[in-house]
Amino acid sequence: MRFMIMVKATKDSEAGVMPTEAEFTEMGRFNEELVKAGVMEAGEGLHPSSKGARVRFSGRDRQVVDGPFSETKELVAGFWIWNCASRQEAIDWVKRCPNPMRTDSEIEIRQIFSAEDFGDALTPELREQEERLRAQVAEQGKPAR
To answer: For 109-145, how does the pLDDT look when each residue is reduced to its tens digit (9 = 90+)?
Structure first.
């Protein structure tokens, strides 16, 4: 099972406050544990929402809204993609994580859909397309020789 682990933003992260060397070191140790355990597939921090944008959809219309966005508690400051045997395993890993912020913070865990979750709506042709696209993305991520 794959999960997206989302580090929720805080006033500090939205203000662009960067982690200290000690905080980077502590999180680096945790990330090493995740990699050694075969759990971590990806992980990144995100710039504040002031550097972001949202696109609102209404029928065929598209409206771009530039950040910053006001509801800090609803924003994401960073994420991991983990492969765990269960939701409980993902929870157990998050409980071992150093606090990603200097203040109280929150991490959200959401399971990522797999092809099987979509049933008959994902036809064999659409599954084949999905597998082909995933293979292309994986190939693009390999270093050039």
So the answer is: 999 999 889 999 999 999 999 999 989 998 897 776 6
What b/e readout covers 104-126, taking b as 16+ CB neighbours within 10 angstroms?
ebebebeeeeeeeeeeeeeeeee
Q: What is the dihedral of CA 85, 95, 105, 102, to 10 degrees?
A: -130
Is-contact 69 54, C-beta < 8 A?
Answer: yes
What's the per-residue H, E or C state across 30-52?
A: HHHHHHHCCCEEEEEECCCHHHC
Contacts of residue 127, Cβ cutoff 8 Å, sequence gap at least 6: 115
State residue 144's pLDDT score: 63
Pairing of strands 40-45, 76-83: antiparallel
Please say whether the beta carbons of 91 and 109 come within 8 A.
yes
> Half-sphere exposure of residue 36, counting CA atoms within 13 Å on the CB side?
6
CB neighbour list of residue 125: distance below 8 Å, 6 or more residues apart: none
Cα radius of gyration rounded to whole Å, the chain: 18
Whether the CB-CB separation of 105 and 7 falls below 8 Å is answered with: yes
